[in-house]
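Recap from last week: sequence in, structure out.
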Amino acid sequence: MVGDEARTTVDSMAQGRFGAVPGKVRLGIIGLGVQGTAYARMIAEGMAGDLVVGAVADIDEAVRTHAQEVCPGAPFYTDYREMIAGGDVDAVVTTVPHYLHPQMGIDAIKAGVHVLVDKPAGVYTAQVRELNEVAAAHPDVTFAIMFNQRNNPLYQRIKEIVDGGEIGARRVQLDHHHLVASRRLLRRQRVAGDLGR
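Predicted structure tokens:
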């Protein structure tokens, strides 16, 4: 998004939230490991436009000192649900183990907090489906999944080459190992009831 469209989105994200910063989206970072720290630093360096770190949540109390170093003044929570309810954030990003993304996203959406889940959205199809259904039921809340390579110039060029037909028609080629692994995964998902028939 650019220009007025981006400004409208930023203003609507912050509208009505306690402690809103005009023209800024207060991002809550859930999990301040490697990826969460990278996001916090990008925000601090001004690389994320209209974002400011509103708060940090991490289950490890020992991370509090690190949080104050990379996000000075941002409130620190050991429970992401308290952060979501605390009024310090307009949106959250999940930078935690993948299996936690769906529930954290669902909790934030239901609380009216905008959500960006880091990829992958989850590890179980049923959980991700539920996350998507909750997001669809709350159209006033912005929900997105991070595709961190989408803006990488290398991958953009590869997409241009493929889309332009420079390397021939697209096709899928699976070697025996990948074919066997894919069949096993499908079988496990069917047994677990994660795939509709």
